[in-house]
Structures are given as C-alpha cells and as structure tokens.
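Following up on my earlier thread - several people asked me to post the actual chain instead of describing it. Fair enough. Here it is, all 183 residues.
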Amino acid sequence: MELSAPLDAHLVSPHIPLQEDIDEYRRLSAEQAAGVAVVTTVWRGRDYAATVSAYLSVSYDPPTMLVSLYEGSRIAQAVAGSGLWALTLLTAEQKRDANWLASPGTPVEGLLSQIPFRRGPGTGCAILEGGLAYFEVSTTAVHEAATHLLVVGAVTAMGSQTTWQPGSSPLVHYAGDYRRLQA
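Reply from S.P.:
Thanks for posting it. Predicted structure:
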C-alpha cells in the first residue's frame, strides 16, 4: 500500500557532492548503530592501532572479515603494507581505550603503552585485554572506495578472553557518540 505523504528527500549529485550533501550524509548515516572495535597491526617493527566502527563479517565459510579505513591514515597504510591485522571487539567498559585510539594526533611511539594487550598467536598483532572477541586476519584483497580502503581478509585465528557477565555490554557507536546497550 502506497502512503500518501511524500518522502523528505535530499537529492545528491554522486559525481560532485556539495559540502551540504556531505554534512547531510554524515548526519543521516549516524542513525545507524555500529559495534566498536580496534584494528591493530605490526608494520616495519612498530605497532599501529585505531578505533573503527566500519567492519563486518563477510562470510562464515570460509571465515572472512572486512574493515574500512580512511585511506590517508597511518593505520590504513600500515594494514595495507603489513598484510596481517587483528580486530578486537570492545566492551562498553573500554570506552576510554576507544577514545584514545580514535583521537587525532596520537603518538606513533608508545601508542599502546597505556592499554593492556597481548600478542595474537597467529599474527603477533596486539589483542586488547578484556575485549568481547578477537579475530586475526590475513589480507586477501584491498579495494579503493572513495576516501577509504576496504581491506578484506581471511580469519586465521580467533577467540574470546571474557565470559559474558550480567550488565556487560558491547561498546556501540550511535548518533556521534559511544553508547552501551541497556537490557
């Protein structure tokens, strides 16, 4: 059944978006709740890490993941260069870590010095302590998409370091802020 009220539409030129188009896209896309994770890698003997909310499970058979990284970022260059990376899914209690690793201008040296982590057994990448789950990944493809790199990879190791506790929650990004799920 067709509804009588017209949709409120903002038409966008896909070839040359105006700043108002970009701003409206950012506002509307923030209405999607997304899990928060940290992607890590070791490249040229140095740890790299960043907070992400644009990741997904591509396939269960074989286990395959994807992460979207801003092409001009240090983490994108490091993940693409290394070919090995890890993704730790964060709990609401790890909001401080998420904020630190999402902050512009974080130092390259000592980036993880204030965050408890272990080395993943498959990749040697940092796995944040207390995360809901982790995945170690070997890159199989990198695709350029607008201002980002879509990095696809085969899961080579995975696990969980915590058991679910009543009152615990994944860290979720919604409406421009980090939130927790309420039961």
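The longest helix spans residues 19-29. That should answer part of your original question.
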